[in-house]
C-alpha cells in the first residue's frame, strides 16, 4: 500500500522512482516479505515468504533498497534477528505469533 493511501493496491508494483513509497518499507533488516509467484513475477506467492536481509551498503540514493516497491512487506522480525542469516531454504518454522493487527486481518477467499 502506498504511503498516504487508505486502500491497498493489488497486482501492481510501486513506482519508487516517481515518489510512491510503501507504508511498510522493504529497506529494513528482517522485513517479512511475500515471495513472487511461480506463475508471474508481478504477483505475490500465496504461500511463500522470505526474510529480507537489508544492507544499507548496497542501497541506492536515499538509502532505499533497489527492490523497494517490488515486493509485498507484511511485517518485521522483532526478536531473533541475529539468526536470520542462518535460515536456509527448506527450514521449517515451528511457530509464529501475530502480535498486533488481527482486527485488520482479511483471510483470502477462493475468488482471490
Radius of gyration: 15 Å
Number of helical segments with 4 or more residues:
0
**Overall mean confidence score, pLDDT:** 80
Question: What's the order of the H and E elements?
Answer: EEE
Strand content: 15-25%
Structural classification? mainly beta
Unreliable residue stretches: none
Largest sheet at a glance?
Answer: 3 strands, antiparallel
What is the helical fraction, as a range of percent? under 10%
Q: Quick one: how many beta strands?
A: 3
Plain-language structure description:
It is a single chain. This protein has 112 residues and is mainly β. It has one domain (16-104). It has no helices and three strands. It has strands spanning 31-36, 44-52, 73-76. A three-stranded antiparallel β-sheet has the order 2-1-3, with no helix packed on it. Strand 1 (31-36) and strand 2 (44-52) form a beta hairpin. It is globular and about 40 Å long. This is PPIase cyclophilin-type domain-containing protein. Residues 28-95 form the PPIase cyclophilin-type domain. InterPro entries: Cyclophilin-like_dom_sf, Cyclophilin-type_PPIase_dom, CYP37-like.
Throw out a few tags for this protein:
mainly beta, 112 residues, 3-stranded antiparallel beta sheet
Task: Characterize this entry briefly.
The protein has 112 residues and is an all-beta fold. It has strands at 31-36, 44-52, 73-76.
Chart the SSEs and their pairings.
Elements: E1 31-36, E2 44-52, E3 73-76
Antiparallel strand pairs: 1-2, 1-3
Amino acid at each position: 500500500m502506498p504511503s498516504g493511501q487508505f486502500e491497498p493496491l493489488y497486482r501492481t508494483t510501486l513506482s519508487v522512482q516517481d515518489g510512491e513509497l510503501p507504508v511498510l518499507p522493504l529497506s529494513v533488516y528482517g522485513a517479512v516479505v511475500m515471495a513472487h509467484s511461480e506463475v508471474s513475477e508481478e504477483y505475490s506467492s500465496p504461500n511463500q515468504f522470505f526474510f529480507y536481509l537489508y544492507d544499507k551498503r548496497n542501497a541506492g540514493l536515499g538509502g532505499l533498497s533497489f527492490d523497494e516497491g517490488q515486493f509485498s512487506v507484511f511485517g518485521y522480525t522483532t526478536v531473533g534477528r541475529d539468526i536470520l542469516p542462518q535460515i536456509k531454504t527448506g527450514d521449517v518454522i515451528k511457530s509464529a505469533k501475530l502480535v498486533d493487527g488481527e482486527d485488520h486481518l482479511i483471510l483470502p477467499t477462493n475468488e482471490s
